[in-house]
């Protein structure tokens, strides 16, 4: 009997510190995972497990570029010498492949030495920051209960000083969802050219301030009246409005200058290619999570005993990724999609989104409806016309940023308008260079 074949590509989110972190974020879904390993001290991936993971991960990646993602908890708690060993192991097992590294951090522990290392090894840093001070500090305190905003901004300044590539990850919660432009403009002003928005969707225990415990993993089929959400969760219909308000500013002045993951993902769907964001693909199962002791789980959001595939120290990484149970886990995203979703006009862009959010029932009483369904219906309908224009621009091998000219010239936002010659910009028009300044400010006209 032949061994099961691997998927074309898969990714592992490695958590060498497990859930251990120096912050105490109110909405963090991962802090409770410490309960999976009671008595384990320290929560630190040993060199033996680390080397095995790096060796096997490189060996099982089919392409010439291998991308590592280091996550947590807070991975910088391991210390810089630990990451120097990571570099040594990667060099040892690279076998001619190009190694790329990304690291997600809260930024509070960064210093010159860390940032010099990131620059030397060309790390892409994902920096968690929710917006201006009041919005960020509301749910992202230190263990001592103090705000972390100043420390994060100091870390950001060091990343810029050392010219380290970074993007920002901002949680959309019950507070930030009310101030979309304030959040977006803040992120743009601090120099984030790549922005990720992550909606907080967390069911509550009987006490709405407490999440559902580790013993109750995500399941389908709760009726609307039976669902309690944590107070910091984004309201079901508001996330789509948040995205739409930001999109309206972005599409008029920032296309090609600021990249918003959600907008890039939507454009991929309108072009007809697989979206870069896993939650909007037809199936999942190719993004796994590795805990500090070598335990491999089906997904970062399914780190529960039920979805543990095994341990890399006694079972090969390739075998676990290709396991029929893992393939079935990924396929269920499509096979359990409710009939109501299959009939939806934006299903091609949504595909039911992440299974962990599919705990509602449809109007017909069928389980598996996504909690954020109202948001995605609103957002994808809202962006339909400009997405069609940008998709047409790509088909013509032209830059999507040309769409901003249609808004500037007050033309209909349709593919036909692309054939209308542009008028010369007026003194008070946005400059075509995409700087966000008026034409007269750029050219002194």
Short overview:
The longest helix has 16 residues, at 238-253. Strand 2 (65-70), helix 2 and strand 3 (98-105) form a beta-alpha-beta unit.
> Strand order across the biggest sheet?
7-6-5-4-3-2-1-8-9-10
> Mean pLDDT, rounded to whole units?
91
Unreliable stretches, pLDDT < 50, 5 or more residues?
Answer: 212-216
Give the overall shape, derived from the CA principal axes: globular
Features:
single chain, 445 residues, alpha/beta, 10-stranded mixed sheet, two-stranded antiparallel ribbon, 12 strands, 12% strand, globular
Account of the protein in words:
By secondary structure, the chain is an alpha/beta fold. Helix content is 34%, strand content 12%. The chain has 16 helices and 12 strands. The chain has a 10-stranded mixed beta sheet. A two-stranded antiparallel ribbon has the order 11-12. The model is unreliable at 212-216 (pLDDT under 50).
Fold blueprint:
Blueprint: E1 11-14, H1 47-60, E2 65-70, H2 80-93, E3 98-105, H3 112-120, E4 124-128, H4 133-139, H5 149-161, E5 166-172, H6 180-189, E6 194-199, H7 238-253, E7 259-260, H8 261-271, E8 287-290, E9 295-297, E10 308-311, H9 317-321, H10 324-335, H11 339-342, H12 347-350, E11 360-361, E12 367-369, H13 373-382, H14 384-395, H15 403-408, H16 439-443
Parallel strand pairs: 1-2, 1-8, 2-3, 3-4, 4-5, 5-6, 6-7
Antiparallel strand pairs: 8-9, 9-10, 11-12
Helix pairs in contact: 1-2, 7-13, 8-14
């Amino acid at each position: 009997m032949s061994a099961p074949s691997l998927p074309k590509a898969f990714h592992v989110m490695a958590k060498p510190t497990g859930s251990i972190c120096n912050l105490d974020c109110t909405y963090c879904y991962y802090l409770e995972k410490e309960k999976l390993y009671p008595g384990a001290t320290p929560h630190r991936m040993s060199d033996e497990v680390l080397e095995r993971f790096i060796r096997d991960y490189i060996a099982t990646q089919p392409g010439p570029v291998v991308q590592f993602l280091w996550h947590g908890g807070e991975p910088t708690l391991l210390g810089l010498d630990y990451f120097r060993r990571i570099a040594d192991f990667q060099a040892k097992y690279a076998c001619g492949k190009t190694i790329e590294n990304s690291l997600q951090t809260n930024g509070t522990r960064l210093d010159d030495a860390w940032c010099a290392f990131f620059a030397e090894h060309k790390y892409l840093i994902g920096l968690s920051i929710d917006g201006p001070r009041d919005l960020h500090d509301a749910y992202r305190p230190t263990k001592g209960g103090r705000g972390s905003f100043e420390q994060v901004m100091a870390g950001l300044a060091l990343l810029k000083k050392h010219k380290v590539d970074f993007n920002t990850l901002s949680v959309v919660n019950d507070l930030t969802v009310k101030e979309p432009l304030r959040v977006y403009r803040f992120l743009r002003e601090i120099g984030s050219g790549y922005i990720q928005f992550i909606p907080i969707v967390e069911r509550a225990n009987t006490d709405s301030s407490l999440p559902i415990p580790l013993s109750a993993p995500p399941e389908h089929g709760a009726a609307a009246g039976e669902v309690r959400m944590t107070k910091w969760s984004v309201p079901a219909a508001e996330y789509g409005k948040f995205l739409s308000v930001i999109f309206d500013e972005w599409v008029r002045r920032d296309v090609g200058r600021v990249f918003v993951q959600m907008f890039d993902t939507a454009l991929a769907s309108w072009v007809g290619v697989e979206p870069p964001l896993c939650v909007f693909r037809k199936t999942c199962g190719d993004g796994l999570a590795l805990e500090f002791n070598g335990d491999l789980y089906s997904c970062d959001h399914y780190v529960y005993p039920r979805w543990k595939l095994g341990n890399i120290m006694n079972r090969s990484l390739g075998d676990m990724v290709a396991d029929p149970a893992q393939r079935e886990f990924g396929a269920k995203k499509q096979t359990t999609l409710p009939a109501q979703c299959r009939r939806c006009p934006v299903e091609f862009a949504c595909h039911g989104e992440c299974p962990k959010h599919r705990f509602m029932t449809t109007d017909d009483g069928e389980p598996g409806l996504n909690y954020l369904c109202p948001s995605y219906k609103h957002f994808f309908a809202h962006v339909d016309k400009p997405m069609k224009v940008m998709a047409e621009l790509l088909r013509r091998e032209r830059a999507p940023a040309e769409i901003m000219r249609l808004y500037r010239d007050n033309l209909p936002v349709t593919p036909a308008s692309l054939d209308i010659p542009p008028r010369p910009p007026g003194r008070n028009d946005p400059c075509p260079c995409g700087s966000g300044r008026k034409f007269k400010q750029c050219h002194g006209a």
